[in-house]
Amino acid sequence: MSGILVVVEHRQGQLRPVSLEVIGAAAAAKESSGEAVTVAVLGAQPEAYVESLKLAGVDEILSVQTAADAFDPETYEIVARALIETRNPSLVLLPHTIDTLGYAAPLAVKANYGFTTDAFALTRDDAGWVATRSGYGQKVNMEIEFPAKETVVVTLRPGSFKAPENVSAPTLSTFAAPAVTPRSVHKGFEEPAASGDVDIPGARFILSIGRGIGEETHVEQFKELSETVGATLGCSRPIADSGWLPKAHQVGQSGKTAAACKMYIAMGISGSVQHMAGMKHVENIIAVNTDPEASIFTIARYGIVGDIFDIAEELRSHF
Amino acid sequence: MKILVTIKQVASLDEDFELNDDGRDVSADFHVFDLNEWDHYALEEAMRLKEGANGDVEIVVVTVGPDSADDELRKCLAKGADRAVRIWSDALEDADPVAVARVLAALARKEAPDMIFAGVQASDHAYGVTGMALAGLLDWPHAAVVAGLDYAPGAKTATARRELEGGAYATVDVQCPAVLTIQLGINTPRYASLRGIKQAAARPIETLAPEELGLAAGETGAAGSLSRIRRVYVPAAGRANMIGGTPAEQAARLASLIKEFSGEAK
To answer: Where in this chain does the record put each Electron transfer flavoprotein alpha/beta-subunit N-terminal domain (chain B) (predicted)?
Structure first.
């Protein structure tokens, strides 16, 4: 068993950026193992993505033509398994995304590959590949090993690995997809709801509220506070799920990325992986939370352990 | 018509927790248990289907876990689940999510439900694996991260709205029976009534050992796992500059940081 296989991801004609991060992780794994990197791309016109995949560390790009262009879990599972059986890689790297949540586990269990998910570090030693992931709400790290597994499938946390900066000239080839009769049919995409006057990706200064506000009736005072201090009002998932603020305010994996943000005040937000995915890059993060152990304090530049209502009340008097 | 809902008793950690001597897990003395947040939504979705079908749906909740997990099953009974099943033996210690799914698959074969709902992930380890591993083991149609569901009990297909990254969704038609992993926000989970809680305390929980489901020793626990925890450790996490003092002093410092930033931004 030798070789590193990456299966990339695209949606509506766009290669998803996390795919390039996974290629970066594969290139690093190649450094430590000497194993060649093969990148597979599935789609109705897979060639369209090939140019973008010619990145440093990639030895081969495999185009796999499939009937449908949109993601289908059974198509990806069956093609990935056929690729593994043909190429016998020691390591298969996938992004940890909504799409792989649908097919990575069925892929691994049917052939008993070593398997873990949401890894943010990957090493190799005498015993084989070792993946590091979080446990107990990110309070600990867990090193995962795969005894006696010749092929290991690992999904990688977005934002944890760097995409290669340089290009290369890999071998280009095609792979014939096995016949698949999917038992689910993609019907269509739904675009994000119109954002109205809220522009999370464009905002330079965001004041964001989370579960810690407790009641819907408390939303209004933080809306006013954000206006008072000149910030755009953001929120974490539970606030949008409850319908207390429109989804356009939501920061995180399933919401918006605070792409232009320079200052982010997180009030009553514990800091899940999914929320951090949308804001951990911000240079000035200030977290206000009653729980000194909240994960948000591990990425914040400044922290205030305190009651968000008290702090908000006092803050108002300064503006 | 039967819907199987898989649930998990999740653990969060007390402050100042300690590791086991083998360094492979946090000592159970520091675990604080609860029902996985996602499971409230999965159960609620089943309850809605039951109510929409005038009650002609049996909801069976199942978990793989020790005695303490009965508490979480009772929470589900209190909300209106019809039956609760717990599967355990010491051989299941050291089971990874796939080994847990093998046990659930054996139970699903016995129960022969028309639909299986699981949470997208568990709040403790967030593997996002068990539900879809179960689908793979049963070789059933499946969809992950379902944030909207259009399904009439007994229908041959279900329409699922999968939540994607960045606020988008994809709609898929899935053949049934199917395994769906249910996302937060798909519904508003109900609270159990006091009467429901009282009644649930007296209701039986069916307990089974894996061998009663026909699972061989090689399929359970570490032997049925696809991964092994080598080591658990507390990471040297980044730490914010903590602003101390009274709320007034903390707010004053926060205000000056904002003004400093706003000044630079001009």
So the answer is: 23-217
Q: What is the pLDDT along chain B (266 residues), one digit of tens a residue?
A: 999 999 999 999 988 899 999 999 999 999 999 999 999 999 999 999 999 988 799 999 999 999 999 999 999 999 999 999 999 999 999 999 999 999 999 999 999 999 999 999 999 999 999 999 999 999 999 999 999 999 999 999 999 999 999 889 999 999 999 999 999 999 999 999 999 999 999 999 999 999 999 999 889 999 999 999 999 999 987 789 999 999 999 999 999 999 999 885 54
CB–CB contact A255 B167 (8 Å) = yes
State whether B128 and A117 contact (CB < 8 Å).
Answer: yes
Cα dihedral A26, A101, A180, B227 in deg (nearest 10): 60
Residues in chain B with CB shorter than 8 Å from the CB of A111 are: none
- Residue B210: asked if its preceding bond is cis (omega within 30°), the reply is no
Return the residue in A9, A100, A103, A139 with the most chain B beta carbons within 10 A, the one to mutate for interface testing.
A139
Alpha-helical (H) ranges within B119-222 are 130-138, 194-202
Distant-in-sequence, close-in-space partners of A224: CB < 8 Å, separation ≥ 6: none
At A74 the three-state DSSP class reads helix
Hey, which residues 96-125 in chain B have their CB within 8 Å of chain A? 96-98, 101, 120, 123-125
- Chain A residues whose CB is inside 8 A of the B227 CB are 114-116, 144-146
